[in-house]
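G., the chain you wanted modeled:
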Amino acid sequence: MIRVRAILLAGAAAGFAALVACASYSNADAEAEPADAPPAETAASLDDPDACGASDYQALIGSNIAAADLPTDMNVRILRPGAIATMDYRPDRLNVLLDEDGVITRVRCG
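Predicted structure as tokens:
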């Protein structure tokens, strides 16, 4: 009986390991820009495309993130190339996109 349990547990562990191995992550997915059109449930939040105030921070483009002066009381997300990020749309969130050297390439809401 104990041997049967050991065999069943080993089989379950092998099956779990196979599932984890199949759930691979592609860097291409992380580097791709999200679709321009957000899901339908967020369409109402598009009434103000600058709800986070991104237009006020466009001058930061081209500067290094270390030298950027961003408010601490603001919802800011820094995105480096290949970073894993949620795809939820938050109109009040300021997204600061960087290149490999930490230089700001884009500032947008979302």
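The first helix runs from residue 2 to 22.

Shout if anything looks off.
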